[in-house]
C-alpha cells in the first residue's frame, strides 16, 4: 500500500508527520510524493488561523473518492464534527494525541471500510513511539520536549487542540539528542508551544539547565529552540547562551502586539516595557543575537494608537524577520465572543504598513552584510536556479550561492548582493 502525507502548520506538525511516516514505513507501506498515487492520504492539519483551516478543506475536496482519507492534527482535534459534516470523503479523524495508533486505525477501520474518530486528549506525555527513529531530514533533528499550553491567551486555540502543558522527561530528551549527535545530525531544534516553560520537577532540571546539558554534547554545531513565551524568561537562560557558543544566536520571540492595552486584552502576561526589557538585556549580554517575532493585526478594539505602538516596537526591536497575520476569531476562544469591530479593509491596510516597515528594516540590515563572511549551513539545491544551493545563517537568513555541497555541510559565504528576504554570495574557498 502507498501513503501520502500533506502537512500544514508549524514545526510541531512537521515533527508529528515524521512520526506518522515512521509508523507506516515500519508497517511496510511506501510513501509517495503525489497524492493521486496513494491508497491512503493523511492530512496533518493546522487550526491556528481560519485561512489555514480553509486550505485543508479545499485540499480534501480535490482528492479522489476512492482513496482512504485520514485527517489528523489540530483541525481534527477542534473541528471533528465539522470535518465529518463537510467532507463525506473523510474516513477517519484522529486528534493530536492519538495518531500513534495509526496501525490500529488502518486495520480496524480503513481496511474494513468503517469510518471513525479518535480525538481523546492525553494528560501525560506519551512515548508510544521512539522519536529518535522518526526522521526524514538527515542533518536537522527536531526534538519535542513539551506540548500544550496553560496560558489560554484569548485568541489562541492551542490549549484546545494540544491540551494542557505536558513535559517530556529529561533523560528521554538527552537520549534523543545524543542519538542525533552520534548519527551525523549537525543541528538540533527543541520544540514546544511554550518551549522555555519546560521543566522536569522530578529531576529538578530547568529549561536553561537542559539547554546547557545538550550544548555539552559533542558534534552538535547549532542548537535552537522554538517557540519561546516572553512571560517565562529568566537571566539563567542568558547566562547559558553566553557560555555555550553552539546555541544559535537567534530566538523566535512572539510579542503579538506593541500595545500593553492590547496585550492585556489578548491575555498575554507581560507589558510592552517588560518585553523590550528582555530584548535589551539579551542584546547587551549577547550583542550578535537576533530575534524574530509574530504579530496579530486588527485584534478587536485595536485603535490607530495601538497599531502605531506596534510599528514603533518593530522599529526598536529591529527583528531579523516577522510573521504577521490579520486577526481571525477561533472557536472556543474568549476573543471569539468579543465584537470584531475593525473592518477587513483597515486590517489589510495595517498589515501592509507593517510589512513595508519590516521590509525596510531587513533591506537596511542586509545592506550592512555586503562584503562580510557568514557561516552558512547548506540545506539543499536552489529549485529556481540550476547549479546553485540554498543555506541558512545562524540567524535563519536564507542564502543562495553557486556550489556543489551536501546538505548539512557548514561553509563560509561572502555576501555580495541581497533582497528583502534573502542574501546571495560566493563560497569562501
Q: How would you describe what is shown here?
A:
- Helix 8 packs parallel to helix 9 and helix 12 (304-317) runs parallel beside helix 13 (344-367).
- The strands form six sheets. The protein has a six-stranded parallel β-sheet with strand order 2-1-3-4-5-6, with helices on both faces.
- It has 13 helices and 21 strands.
- It is of the alpha/beta class.
- The protein folds into three domains: 2-118, Rossmann fold (3-Layer(aba) Sandwich), CATH 3.40.50.12160; 131-367, pyruvate-formate lyase- activating enzyme, CATH 3.80.30; 373-427, Nucleic acid-binding proteins (OB fold (Dihydrolipoamide Acetyltransferase, E2P), Beta Barrel).
- Helix 2 (50-61) links the parallel strand 3 and strand 4 (68-73).
SSE blueprint and pairings:
Layout: E1 2-7, H1 11-27, E2 30-31, E3 40-45, H2 50-61, E4 68-73, H3 74-78, H4 80-86, E5 90-94, H5 102-110, E6 116-118, E7 140-144, E8 146-147, H6 158-161, E9 166-167, H7 170-182, E10 187-191, E11 199-200, E12 205-206, H8 207-215, E13 222-226, H9 235-243, E14 250-252, H10 260-266, H11 272-285, E15 290-297, H12 304-317, E16 321-326, H13 344-367, E17 373-381, E18 388-393, E19 398-402, E20 410-418, E21 422-427
Parallel strand pairs: 1-2, 1-3, 3-4, 4-5, 5-6, 7-10, 10-13, 14-15, 15-16, 19-21
Antiparallel strand pairs: 8-9, 11-12, 17-18, 17-20, 18-19, 20-21
Amino acid at each position: 500500500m502507498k501513503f501520502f502525507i500533506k502537512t500544514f502548520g508549524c514545526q510541531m506538525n512537521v515533527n508529528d508527520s515524521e512520526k506518522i511516516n515512521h509508523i507506516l514505513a515500519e508497517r511496510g507501506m511506501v510513501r509517495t510524493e503525489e497524492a493521486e498515487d496513494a491508497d491512503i492520504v493523511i492530512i496533518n492539519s493546522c487550526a491556528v488561523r481560519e485561512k489555514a483551516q480553509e486550505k485543508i478543506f479545499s485540499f480534501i475536496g480535490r482528492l479522489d473518492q476512492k482513496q482512504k482519507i485520514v485527517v489528523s492534527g489540530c483541525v481534527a482535534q477542534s473541528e471533528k464534527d465539522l470535518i465529518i459534516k463537510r467532507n463525506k470523503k473523510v474516513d477517519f479523524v484522529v486528534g493530536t494525541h492519538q495518531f500513534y495508533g495509526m496501525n490500529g486505525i488502518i486495520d480496524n477501520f480503513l481496511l474494513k471500510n468503517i469510518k471513525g474518530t479518535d480525538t481523546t486528549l492525553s494528560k501525560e506525555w506519551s512515548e508510544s513511539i521512539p522519536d529518535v527513529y522518526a526522521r526524514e531530514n538527515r542533518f536537522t533533528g527536531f526534538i519535542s520536549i513539551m506540548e500544550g499550553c496553560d496560558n489560554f491567551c484569548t485568541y489562541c486555540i492551542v490549549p484546545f487542540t494540544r491540551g494542557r502543558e505536558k513535559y517530556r522527561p529529561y533523560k528521554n530528551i538527552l537520549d534523543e539528542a545524543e542519538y542525533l549527535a552520534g548519527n551525523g545530525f549537525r543541528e538540533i531544534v527543541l520544540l514546544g508551544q511554550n518551549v522555555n516553560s519546560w521543566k522536569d520537577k522530578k529531576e529538578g532540571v530547568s529549561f536553561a539547565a537542559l539547554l546547557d546539558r545538550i550544548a555539552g554534547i559533542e558534534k552538535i554545531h547549532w542548537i535552537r529552540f522554538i517557540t519561546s513565551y516572553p512571560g517565562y524568561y529568566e537571566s539563567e537562560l542568558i547566562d547559558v547562551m553566553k557560555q555555550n557558543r553552539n546555541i544559535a544566536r537567534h530566538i523566535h520571540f512572539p510579542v503579538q502586539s506593541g500595545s500593553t492595552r492590547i496585550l492585556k486584552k489578548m491575555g498575554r502576561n507581560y507589558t510592552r516595557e517588560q518585553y523590550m526589557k528582555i530584548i535589551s538585556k539579551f542584546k547587551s549580554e549577547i550583542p550578535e543575537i537576533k530575534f524574530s517575532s509574530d504579530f496579530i493585526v486588527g485584534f478587536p478594539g485595536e485603535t490607530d494608537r495601538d497599531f502605531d505602538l506596534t510599528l514603533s516596537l518593530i522599529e526598536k526591536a529591529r527583528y531579523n524577520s516577522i510573521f504577521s497575520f490579520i486577526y481571525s476569531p477561533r472557536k472556543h476562544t474568549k476573543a471569539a465572543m468579543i465584537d470584531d469591530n475593525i473592518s477587513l479593509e483597515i486590517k489589510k491596510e495595517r498589515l501592509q504598513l507593517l510589512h513595508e516597515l519590516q521590509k525596510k528594516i531587513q533591506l537596511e540590515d542586509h545592506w550592512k552584510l555586503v562584503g562580510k563572511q557568514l557561516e552558512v549551513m547548506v540545506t539543499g539545491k536552489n529549485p529556481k536556479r540550476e547549479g546553485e544551493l540554498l543555506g541558512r545563517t545562524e540567524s535563519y537568513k536564507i542564502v543562495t550561492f553557486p556550489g556543489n555541497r551536501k546538505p548539512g555541510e557548514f561553509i563560509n559565504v561572502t555576501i555580495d548582493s541581497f533582497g528583502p528576504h534573502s542574501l546571495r554570495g560566493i563560497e569562501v574557498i
